[in-house]
Amino acid sequence: MNVATEIRPTFDTDVRTAEPCLAVDGLDIAYGTGTPVVSDFSLTVAPGETVGLIGESGCGKSSVGLALLGLLPDSAQVSARTLDIAGQDVLGATDRDFQKLRGREIGMIFQEPMSALNPCTRIGIQIAEVLRLHGLADKKTAQARALELLQLVQVPEPELRMKQFPHQLSGGMRQRIVIAMALAARPKVLVADEPTTALDVTVQAQILRLLAQIQQDSGAGMVLISHDLGVIAETCDRVVVMYAGQIIEQGTPEAVLSAPAHPYTAGLLASIPTLAGDHAGDLPTIPGGIAAEDRARPGCRFAPRCALAGPECEAPLPLEALTGSHDVRCVKSLVPVGYSAAIDE
Ligand SMILES: Nc1ncnc2c1ncn2[C@@H]1O[C@H](COP(=O)(O)OP(=O)(O)OP(=O)(O)O)[C@@H](O)[C@H]1O
Question: Which sequence ranges form a coiled-coil region, renumbered to this chain (predicted)?
């Protein structure tokens, strides 16, 4: 049996509605009394939409994801104008409030599946527990639904897997189990933080396709955090590029990846090796790294590493619309305002 085509999701409710399932406006995050590691971050995700968050290590991607899940440490200071998950205002939500939301309204998939699984509990029981925790099923129904979910995430021999422990499964299979658990209560939003980074390349592609298919079928919105532009290009409806805690460019993958307007995005793209190997000599890299003081710069935070930087880059600058679906925060934008609209339609 071709599992991919035969097993369809059993979601009986289509959650597609006009309302965004995630609305964030003006999110700031700081650890302790330090400079904010995320500043004025805004994002809206529609049901069924996948938005990719990209940027190099330390730009604040994971902090955003953890804030959405209410999983930041106590040392973190979080403020925002709006923070709505599945239509619920979670500004000021307590740990207890977030415990009810997590799994039920917002699901999570992290890089390392073993950290999300209990090593001493059988797979079937772990999945069923998600349903029982949220009062969505009695013991017998939860077990039956756990089996369905294993079929949905295309785990071979699902009856056998129900009885196995996490260490008896491969890394790819464990990540499928985590996806099944994330989907069990049919959340309206998913946060996936580097969900395939720990897997080998062939398994990565399978898991990404599975995730995209299930997410589309369920109508959940998804924030996909990755440092891998290939992953983002393949799976996202929209891409948000972060640098030193700020959004510096956003738009459709076609626009941002084919006509990058920010020199940082252009540098990221130029540093990806191609199969054709059409780079003479070494791949170009962006010299330097994100320094803590860059996050306090009033002007462009990338300027210290930017070959195009000039005095005009020292003034504060907002995200500006280049087209209806492509914004950039750069006075030296590599593409003009209103550039060929055809490219991002
Ligand atoms: N618990 C913490 N306490 C203090 N600083 C932290 C904490 N967690 C993250 N940071 C700092 O916040 C900044 C942003 O980190 P974050 O993990 O959000 O970035 P990232 O883009 O997801 O990076 P990576 O891809 O390496 O996870 C970094 O400078 C990091 O050192």
Answer: none
